[in-house]
Amino acid sequence: MAADEGPVRIGTRGSPLALAQAYETRRLLIENFPELAEDGMIEICVMKTQGDMILDKSLMELGGKGLFTKELDVALLGNEVDICVHSMKDVPTWLPEKTVLPCNLERETTNDAFIHKDGSVKRIADLPDHSVIGTASLRRQSQIMAQNPTLKCVNFRGNVQTRLRKLDDGVVDATLLAIAGLKRMSMDGCATAVLDWDEMLPAVAQGAIGIQCRSEDERSLKLLAALNHPETKATVDCERGFLEALDGNCKTPIAGQAKVVDGKIHFRGLIAMPDGSQKFTISSEGNVEDAVEIGRKAGEELKAQAGDAFFKMMVEMSPQQVLGQITK
Questions:
Q1: Per the residue annotation, which of 52, 73, 90, 217 is the catalytic one?
Q2: pLDDT category, 95, cuts 50, 70, 90?
Q3: Which of 75, 175, 219, 248 is the one with CA 20 to 30 A from 302?
């Protein structure tokens, strides 16, 4: 790859986790293309997104979709960067025209970590009644409250370090974070326990890193083809097919996870009311090459199972009504 093509410019958010993911991408690029090890051949371009700047409101109140990607999309289309590194769970199911997301790095463990203030409680079910849990995720809130409706969930935003500091300060009794992010920052030792899927089904695409580029940028497409992990891409595509079929808005708690076992995709999905009072689940499996269709069909079946009334209610609920359900 010729040096006269200029540096590879990597667009990323500025949080410690986002930077860790960008530098991991840089490491893999150099590993696969040693010529990029020369000084100046890779640039890390940091930018703030709307989701990073407004921390006193829940993601639901801000509108949810694209909050952590829009500014990166603009930079990519404006040729300010060549590739953008994303946490896949933040990426909407639609992409801007003239961009593609052809690459998923090998996925980390997808489970959620449970972190208790003093480590004495290991499971959500063992928390005392009326305990306060910090989380900005409706998916987590709904599954927490389905286990114990007396628990109180409060908005908990900011980077990982900020959230853990609030926990140490006694603002809440416990919190949940993706174990993948903690591992990428060598902070997984702070987890009290790692929750299995039966206790807390993770978000669609949790634990996966995706890399986006312009659809006609042949150089970037070649670079990213070498970094793509096919099994991860199949599972993520399956989960995003599920999410797209549900057309989930930011007020609907949705979870979905796929894994490859003995050459087959195994998928589990969930939708719920924000207060956990109703929950609908589905499991399906099939061939890896049919990953997107498996996810899409699971979404359609779950949509039919929940019924039109469920989704009509979710669409009509104001953010205040949803938060009222959670904090009542």
A1: 90
A2: very high
A3: 175
